[in-house]
């Protein structure tokens, strides 16, 4: 999936059979997200990418940084998107 925001060409890979998501630098463990203050970043696009990822049934999150998150609680990405939305609008 194309998930711009942190960077213009950001992608995420999702294995729907295993529920494994490799989101690049869009979302991490501990409700963290990728930086949106860097050259080429776009906060609005990052918000849209988080919303798009929130529709996936993710059980394992394998982010580009930080730690792997196993047994991802339902709604984790949606809650993270809601938490960051005021900063990404």
> H/E element string?
EEHEEH
The share of residues in helices is 25-40%
Strand order, largest beta sheet: 1-2-3-4
What is the helix tally?
2
Mean pLDDT across the residues is: 97
Strand content: 5-15%
* β-strand number: 4
Structural class: alpha+beta
* Main pleated sheet: 4 strands, mixed
Give the termini distance in whole angstroms: 22 Å
Radius of gyration: 12 Å
Low-confidence stretches: none
Q: Topology, pairings included?
A:
Blueprint: E1 13-15, E2 20-22, H1 43-53, E3 60-61, E4 69-70, H2 76-88
Parallel strand pairs: 2-3
Antiparallel strand pairs: 1-2, 3-4
Explain how this protein is built:
By secondary structure, the chain is α+β, with helices and mostly antiparallel strands. The chain has helices at 43-53, 76-88, and strands spanning 13-15, 20-22, 60-61, 69-70. A four-stranded mixed β-sheet has the order 1-2-3-4, with no helix packed on it. Strand 3 and strand 4 form a beta hairpin. The longest helix is centred in the C-terminal third of the chain and has 13 residues, at 76-88. The protein is globular and about 35 Å long. The mean pLDDT is 97.
